[in-house]
């Protein structure tokens, strides 16, 4: 049987420093975090950006795990080279193979603590359901967005992103650090339970399914000419109904939500998404029945031979 190994990543974005700080402290004291006897590989995703105090050097590392990025290992683009390096070291066919990747992030948006799942892979949904059942975390299902691809965890058989906020870029915060540690240990505990076939999967899963993203108001030259309305700011996970306020312009104009069905906004006014022309993303809250194949996929992955 292949030994189970978990890839733990902090600093995929170099200015999200709380996970980086926690990993550094953990390296100084190996008993700081309980991994329940499971072997882990702790890495700083983007060490150059971390050193520079920037989100990235050339382009977003968490959008760099694309097939075209792996055609050449001699790329002058640091993030593409780093994506290749991480896969060669820790990918399933790498020198130190890992089966599950857990990627820890922070956000300037008022998201609280949540999980991000990319697509509908069975093992991802099974692991996310265990954490939702234990900690009550919302799950953002990111799919059907061709402009946002190449995420790190998609390159492993199972992977989740942990997002915690709000926190300014480059700042340490005791609550963020404590939440990161709690979620990390809870993930390791649940993986340990699956390893020992001591399973308590929920019957239902609450998912916030990505519908689309919208930009800030812009003038004819592409310049931002409005901002997130005060009634929408910091209201992540709160339902939007038709005619609710979205944006405000200094001339007094209010831009309102015009959809007929209610949506749930997430990542409202995330600082890092301004360059991506995203002011917020809309999701639809759905209650899914837990599927047996999710459970079996995660069990098979953790117990693979």
TrEMBL record:
SUPFAM superfamilies for this protein: Zn-dependent exopeptidases
This protein's UniProt keywords: Hydrolase, Metal-binding, Zinc
Q: How is the cofactor bound?
A: Binds 1 zinc ion per subunit.
Q: What Gene3D superfamilies does the database record attribute to this sequence?
A: 2.20.25.160, Zn peptidases (3.40.630.10)
Using the record, list the residue span of the signal peptide; answer none if the entry has no such feature. Answer: none
Active-site residue numbers: 163 (proton donor/acceptor)
Q: What Enzyme Commission number(s) does the record list for this chain?
A: 3.5.1.15
Q: Which reaction does it catalyse?
A: an N-acyl-L-aspartate + H2O = a carboxylate + L-aspartate
Q: In this protein, which residues make up the domain named Succinylglutamate desuccinylase/Aspartoacylase catalytic? A: 5-189
**A GO CC annotation given for this chain:** cytosol
State its cofactor: Zn(2+)
Q: Name one Pfam family in it.
A: AstE_AspA_hybrid
Where do the annotations place substrate binding?
Answer: 55, 62-63, 163, 273
Residue sites binding Zn(2+) per the record: 13, 16, 105
Domain AstE/AspA barrel-sandwich hybrid residues, every copy: 204-285
Q: Name one GO molecular function term.
A: hydrolase activity, acting on ester bonds
Q: What family does the database annotate?
A: Belongs to the AspA/AstE family. Aspartoacylase subfamily.
Q: What is this protein called?
A: Probable aspartoacylase
Q: Which organism is it from?
A: Prochlorococcus marinus XMU1408
State the taxonomy lineage: Bacteria, Bacillati, Cyanobacteriota, Cyanophyceae, Synechococcales
